[in-house]
Amino acid sequence: MTNDSSRASDSNGQLADPKIFERIVIVSGMSGAGKSTALHALEDLGYFCIDTLPTTVIEPVLEACRNASVKWIALGIDVRVRMFLEHFSSALDLIQSTPNVDLSVLFLDASDQTLLSRFSATRRPHPLSTNVQGPDCGAMALLDGITSERQRLARVRVRATDVIDTTGMTVHDLRRRVVELLGGETSRGRMRVRLLSFGFKYGPPIDADLMLDVRFLPNPYFVEGLRQQTGLDEPVETYVMGFPDTKAFLDRAQSLISFCIPRYEREGKAYLTIAVGCTGGRHRSVATAVELARRLEETLGTAIGVAHRDIHRDVSSDRASEPDIIGGGVRGMGRAVR
After folding, report:
1. Which residue, 193, 213, 216, is CA-closest to 204?
2. Which one of 43, 60, 270, 331 is separated from 178 by 20 to 30 angstroms, measured CA to CA?
């Protein structure tokens, strides 16, 4: 075996240093059966995805991924690689002969009628459709292309470790199935959840999926000694959490979000941003977002991200009084001014 690290393979044609790979997934199948959806789902799971890869360059591509410490790789290979499809079996044999590589071959299929309907809906030509003359030339050309594709992909389908028939499936159904098959036992398959505190006076975040308003809670801004601190400081946290309404709000918010998250995941949602807002985004929203994230982590058993958009705003530039949403009055230094 050669010791030349610049070479992609050893004298036996095997990939050098294969231990770097945790998982390689080959995604193939009929055009219109959902390969793009499957690759998008794998990308959301953390895979490095390459579509329409000529089979003759699989080895150098995997070597490049090895050098970059990329461990989860998904390769899209179908009839669009044209003459390179002839080398599929040899490329697959090379990967399978490499130790410590978890290889899966996912083949997506659907009935001819389903594929015809999908191509008709998207109005895209089939990669192998032929030019047939006559009043039914469009339908005949498409059907001929589907038939030819099935024949060409027969050698790929027979090597598949998993076959998914997407007839009757929605994109959400397919995404769920791909996650079940290839998500592994890690949290990569879980929806990414982030809590974001913010101040309404600076505008709501544009990327929020859910928005919670905690301006009904007493404001530490008007308490002497707390204005310059934030919801991350213990005195402010103790103040905000000391009110019965805070606990009641957190109990209800936790229940609602815990109910929603698994249902969002079931529909294929990849990420969820929950915005928690108060007036300035430095006290109430920060403290409640941190506590809500802690509760959700305990309930759901997954990490919850927390970010604070406006926590570093300079309060010294704020007005001496701020709007009071209760009654439309103005609070100034702890007194309600009418």
Report:
1. 213
2. 60
Task: Look at the block and give the residue holding tokens 């103790």.
Answer: 238
Let me know if residue 4 belongs to a domain: no
Cβ atoms of 8 and 60 within 8 Å: the answer is yes
Q: Which tokens hold the place of 280?
A: 């300035």
The arithmetic mean of pLDDT across residues 1-12, rounded, is: 38
Same domain for 149 and 265, yes or no, is no
pLDDT at 95 over 60: yes
CA 246 to chain centre: 32
Can you read off the two tokens belonging to residue 21?
A: 């790979």
Cβ(80)–Cβ(28) below 8 Å:
no
Read off the pTM.
0.59
**How do 192-199 and 305-308 pair as beta strands?**
parallel
Highest mean pLDDT among 97-101, 168-172, 325-329: 168-172
Least-confidence region, from 15-24, 172-181, 269-278: 15-24
Q: Which domain holds residue 50?
A: 18-188
CATH of the domain at 22: 3.40.50.300
pLDDT tens-digit series, residues 276-287: 999 999 999 999
Round the average pLDDT of the chain to a whole number and report it: 80
List all residues 6 or more positions away from 288 whose beta carbon is below 8 Å from its beta carbon.
Answer: 197, 212, 214, 217, 231, 240, 246, 249, 250, 276
- 11-31 residue pLDDT tens: 344 444 444 457 899 999 888
Both tokens assigned to 316 = 């010294």
24 bridge partner residues: 73, 103
Element (H, E) at 103: strand 102-109
Q: Both 179 and 271 in a single domain?
A: no
Pairing of strands 321-323, 162-165: unpaired
